[in-house]
Specification:
Layout lengths: L1 H20 L10 E3 L15 E14 L11 E6 L7 E7 L18 E9 L6 E12 L9 E11 L2 E8 L5 E18 L3 H28 L1
Antiparallel strand pairs: 1-2, 2-9, 3-4, 4-5, 5-8, 6-7, 6-9
Length: about 220
C-alpha cells in the first residue's frame, strides 16, 4: 500500500510539472469562435464519441499575395477542449500549401495549393484518439454568408501528439482583397486516457532513477 501511494503521488507531481511547463494557449483573439460540445468519454467507454464543432474566421484575405515573404507561413489559431485538460489543439491554414516561394508553385498553376491542418499537443495528449471533419470556404467579403466557395474538405485521424492535414486549391480567379476564409472542424473524440502520459513519464523517471542508483553503487564499489 505504501508503494502504491508513493507511485500515485509521483504521478500527480509529474502531471503538475508538465502543466506548468506547457502553458495553455490563449483563445481570446477576435475572429475565432469555438463551440465546445459534450464531455470527452473516458478511456474504454462505450458512449458515442463526443463532438466539438470549431469555427475560425480569417478576414482581410487576398490571393495572390501582395508580399512574397508571406509564402510558406501558416496562420494558426490554438484552442483546447475544457473537458480534456492538458490537451492542446491548433488549427493551421497554409495559404500557399507549404510552398516557400512562387518558384515552388506546381507547373501549370497560377496559384499555389492551400492546406488546412490540425495539430495536437500537450502533457495529456498521449492518450487521445480523435477524428476531425475539416473544410475551408472562401467568402467574397466580410458581409458574405455561407455557403461559400469550398477550397478544402477532408477527414483527419490523429492518435496522441501529432499533426494531420488536407490539401486544397484556391479558385482559379483567386481571392479579391477583403475576402474571408471560414475554417471549420468537427472534432470527434474517440477515446481519451488522461493517465497514459503520467504512466509513461513515471516509468521513465523510475528507469532513470534506477540507472542513476546503479551508477552510484558501481562507483562506490570501485572506490572500495
Amino acid at each position: 500500500d505504501g508503494l502504491e501511494a508513493l507511485a500515485q503521488e509521483s504521478l500527480a507531481n509529474v502531471q503538475r510539472l508538465a502543466e506548468e511547463l506547457l502553458p495553455r494557449p490563449s483563445t481570446s483573439a477576435s475572429g475565432f469562435r469555438a463551440e465546445i460540445g459534450a464531455a470527452c468519454p473516458d478511456a474504454g467507454a462505450a458512449a458515442q464519441p463526443a463532438e466539438s464543432p470549431v469555427v475560425w474566421r480569417i478576414e482581410n484575405v487576398r490571393m495572390p499575395m501582395e508580399r512574397a515573404p508571406h509564402y510558406g507561413k501558416p496562420l494558426r489559431r490554438p484552442f483546447d477542449i475544457p473537458q480534456c485538460p492538458g490537451v492542446y489543439l491548433c488549427l493551421a491554414f497554409y495559404p500557399s500549401g507549404g510552398a516557400a516561394s512562387l518558384e515552388e508553385v506546381p507547373a501549370g498553376r497560377r496559384l499555389p495549393p492551400c492546406r488546412m491542418a490540425l495539430e495536437v499537443s500537450g502533457p495529456a495528449a498521449a492518450g487521445l484518439e480523435l477524428s476531425a471533419e475539416v473544410d475551408t470556404q472562401l467568402l467574397a467579403g466580410p458581409s458574405a454568408t455561407l455557403p461559400g466557395t469550398l477550397m478544402v474538405s477532408g477527414k483527419l485521424e490523429l492518435a496522441g501528439v501529432g499533426e494531420a492535414h488536407c490539401d486544397g486549391a484556391w479558385p482559379a480567379e483567386g481571392a479579391p482583397s477583403g475576402s474571408t476564409l471560414v475554417c471549420s472542424a468537427l472534432l470527434r473524440v474517440k477515446s481519451w486516457d488522461p493517465n497514459a502520459v503520467r504512466l509513461e513519464k513515471f516509468l521513465w523517471q523510475t528507469m532513470a532513477f534506477d540507472a542513476a542508483s546503479y551508477d552510484s553503487n558501481s562507483d562506490s564499489e570501485e572506490g572500495d
